[in-house]
Amino acid sequence: MQDVENIVNGQKLFLKPEYQEVLKNKKEFEGNMGSINPAKVDEIQEWTKSWDYREKNLAREAITINPAKACQPLGAIMVGLGFENTMPYVHGSHGCVAYFRSYFTRHFKEPTPCVSDSMSESAAVFGGLSNMKDGIRNCNALYKPEMISVSTTCMAEVIGDDLNAFIIGAREDAEGELDNTVITHAHTPSFVGSHITGYDNMMKSTLEQLSEGVEKKVDAERINIIPGFEPYLGSLKEIKKISKMFGDKIIMIGDHEEQWDTGAGEYKLYSGGTKLEDGKTAINAKATISLQKYSTIATAKTIKNKWKQGYETCNPIGLSGTDAFVMKLAELTGKEVPQELKNQRAKFVDAMQDSYPYMHGKKIAIWGDPDFLLGMVSFLVEMGSIPTHILCHNAPRKGWEDDMKAILAKSNRAAECNIWGGKDLWALRSILFTEPVDFMIGNVYGKELYRDTKIPLIRIGFPIFDRHHLHRYSISGYKGGINLLTWITNAILDQLDEETKAIGETDYFFDAVR
Amino acid sequence: MGPETLESLQKKALDEVLASYPAKVAKNRAKHLGVDTPDGVKGACDTTRSNKQTVPGVMSQRGCAYAGSKGVVWGPIKDMIHISHGPIGCGQYSRGGRRNYYIGTTGVDTFVTMNFSTDFNEKDIVFGGDKKLKKALQEIDELFPLNNGISIQSECPIGLIGDDIQAVAKVHKKETGHQTIAVSCEGFRGVSQSLGHHIANDMIRDHVMPDTSFRKDFDSTDYDVAIIGDYNIGGDAWSTRIILEEMGLRVIAQWSGDATYKELAIAPKAKLNLLHCYRSMNYISRHMEQEFGIPWIEYNFFGPTKTTESIRKIAACFDESIQAKAEAVIAKYTAMTDAVIAKYRPMLEGKKVMLYVGGLRPRHVIGAYEDLGMEVIGTGYEFAHGDDYKRTKEDISRSTLIYDDANEYELEEFVRKLKPDLVAAGVKEKYVFQKMGLPFRQMHSWDYSGPYHGYDAFAIFARDMDLAMNSPVWDHTKAPWDKEVEGA
Predict the structure, then answer these.
(1) B405-416: per-residue pLDDT in tens?
(2) Nearest-Cα residue of chain B relative to residue A133
(3) pLDDT on residue B318
(4) CA dihedral for A312, A313, A319, A320, sign (positive or negative)
């Protein structure tokens, strides 16, 4: 029973003997093997660690287990929230939107505005036009957005709703109410690609539709920066700071930083975001830099082929990635690299040289989105770590693996590194048991891998639900590099302490100075 | 604040919110909103319109049928593998967030926190996914030989592209002898999670209830009961079970938190079904009553008052020996819960609470708050039916604003106007109200604490509410340089 002076929640309550008895007695009625024959569980568990199991596991064709990707509309919503006073609107079932909002909110610990038009069975039969007509109008009346950013769920895609025609229809029926509301729209079928594909489709459509009717007039000083599906809000801030050093007309397109980083004291539905005017004039820029090449494949085509605009990709994670970004800004603006950035670089390199003994030679397994991985692996190689297993569940079909190989080629341990495109985290479990590493870098879904394999997890990626505030930091730029270095080095040192803390056994190495 | 004042404030808030809507929406929403009081004439609890289409374009907090089936009813069954059948998103968004606790070796003999998906691509949509599903079932059996069955949880496209998952499941079951159950819980069905619960119940009725393999040799006692509609959030079913066992009852099954397939199959051996979440499992309770003659009663294990009432109600279904033990249990724990109340009530007395949850909680938790002297002034359900609202009448303690399928705009406005001291709802709402400087508790996940069912759990509930209400962090919102504004 609870001790009123020391009330404990489930974590410790269920360890009390009376509850242990309850759980033990429950086994009599249970049918799982652990309650019938625990030895059999041990046997199978051992087998799941074997090469035999790995071969079967990696040969899977039909069932995906513990994925490391999500679906298109999630990325589309991030684009919508990157523009000022914009309400993301999902044409489809409201269940999906409940999921998207919860997912982002659990990561950012912030509200995530997004509506749907609640399509259900009748819409499945008759199409979602009437939902769209009511939905857009209600959304507009209630939330007073300047822009509504419409994406689709797989339901709307399967029944073949025509967004463009629907939105025209909605406007016609709205008795003028929607005349001053911008409505952008993209088809984002969940059964194609992943959340980064949705980001790409929505960004492409947003840019095309915002610039419709805008007379192209190139502004030689204007540069656009598209951040991509970037869960690190501090990275957005850092990129904007760096850009600012090169000029005032370097503008982030799709800037969701402030939407998910608002202060206490007042709730505002909309916060920050790229100005719609800047979205409309993006076509006039001299060039656009995408910070996530593989989150903007379709967007790139619009910029290069339709807009005939300069298009560059940079990946400012780690040293050389940031160097390339800084040099690209210098090249495009014709300006020298500012002293402040030179200082930042020197300090980052200094920090790398302080900490290298710990990261050097460490075998690391890492997973995440394609561009995140290119940047992170580049940093690991710069530090002398061995990115032994690089797993990208949503690996792009073209180009990505070659880009990754080019990065690995800079490591003298490249032969030990494996690229696992299209594999899920249950596959990684087998890989880790058969070819273990020292550390893992990834999102919250690595938690179970940590429990199973005991390989320490360093949480960098998306989503991270079980640690707080990491998204506030930058992983980009020289300063972001110091954050990465700090997190990884200290995780390695924590583990070293963990391994050397046994008193009288290993604690001769439990050093006060490292 | 007298009860009249509160009621008039509530009605005013309601009118103001309706006035801000477009006419068509106002007309619709007016039927879902109202005020009711514990006594006297029929109020909103009798008249509230519910289980209807959500207004398009509003920020609804509702989920879908898939969430009701996979997320709520089937997902917690720990020794089965539940496939999210369709595109990748649904399974990913619903992975590991619900906190339905279980004991087992995950990935070997239990699988709850894992995510199995058929990860549909365009080809599967165009040519159908039945072959992929068949192969998926085979791969699962090869890699997870200790699974005690597979359920196939349909996502939206399945019902639209004309796949025959029932046939695939039937063939697989025939070929392997393993329980394989296809659930057509596509997200677009119905208007909320609720139809998903019903569909999930129906599949248990059709596929699990006829399975007598575990019932054949089951040794019954006169005191066998099953816990129905407890998903073991934060361990709720365990802190319920201990009380029932101390009463001398034998809990032979938990549905479906920490459940095994076997517990589902042996439930018809119970002498009495104890139903906690009426909304999500009344269907199967009624079925077991009709098919097997098992009576069922509802109970409420939130807060000592309701827990004690419920214990007596349950004991009354059994003989005097159980009734005597029940009184002993009540006496044993009441001393502790009295001490909890003595400790926390002075810090919480008179604080006003607004709730917005799903299932049973919008009414069931009211008693727990009232035990602490807290006053629930507004409550509503995401996906209730008329019978839920009727039952709510018995639980409200004062004039209460009732809101069905409330959207974020309404919740925000009601809170601004009624100024509660605590809001208790879900994660999507949490940070909205915290930004406004209001303490908030998530009442789906117990905000990463719990359990909240039973006597021991009430101590946690009280501690958590005190933690939320009386944390110093809320005092920091106002900066020292901000001047006090008169009347603000």
Answers:
(1) 999 999 999 999
(2) B56
(3) 98
(4) negative
Is residue B108 within 8 angstroms of chain A, CB to CB?
yes
- pLDDT computed for residue B2 by the predictor: 52
Nearest CB among B66, B103, B459 relative to A23 is that of B103
**How confident is the prediction for chain B on average, in pLDDT?**
96
DSSP assigned state of B106: B
Place of tokens 């939130």: B302
pTM exceeds 0.90, yes or no:
yes
Q: Which residue of A has its CA nearest to B341?
A: A4
How buried is residue B331: exposed, middle or buried, by Cβ count under 10 Å (0-12/13-18/19+)?
exposed
Give alpha helix (H) positions in A174-275. 195-210, 233-244
**pLDDT value of residue A337:** 98
CA angle A444, B144, A99 (to 5 degrees): 35
From the CA atom positions of chain B, what is the Rg in Å?
A: 23
Cα A148-B429-A199 angle, rounded to 5 deg: 40
Size of interface A-B (CB pairs under 8 A): 355
d(CA B87, CA B157): 8
At A328, the amino acid letter reads K
Predicted interface score ipTM higher than 0.85: yes
The enclosing H or E element of B337 equals helix B320-348
pLDDT of residue B168: 98
* Side chain identity at residue A367, one-letter code: W
Q: Which of B57, B78, B95 is opposite residue A32, by nearest beta carbon? A: B78
Catalytic residue among B13, B45, B64, B326: B64
B304 part of contact set with chain A, CB < 8 Å:
no
* Residue B13 token pair: 């808030």
Which residue carries 């540069």 as its tokens?
A: A223
Categorize the per-residue pLDDT at B39 as very low, low, confident or very high, splitting at 50, 70 and 90. confident
Q: What's the pLDDT band for B4 if we cut at 50, 70, 90?
A: low
Alpha helices (H) in A218-359, listed in sequence order: 233-244, 276-280, 297-301, 319-333, 339-359
Statement: residue B40 has pLDDT above 80: no
Report, as residue numbers or ranges, the catalytic residues of A: 154, 158
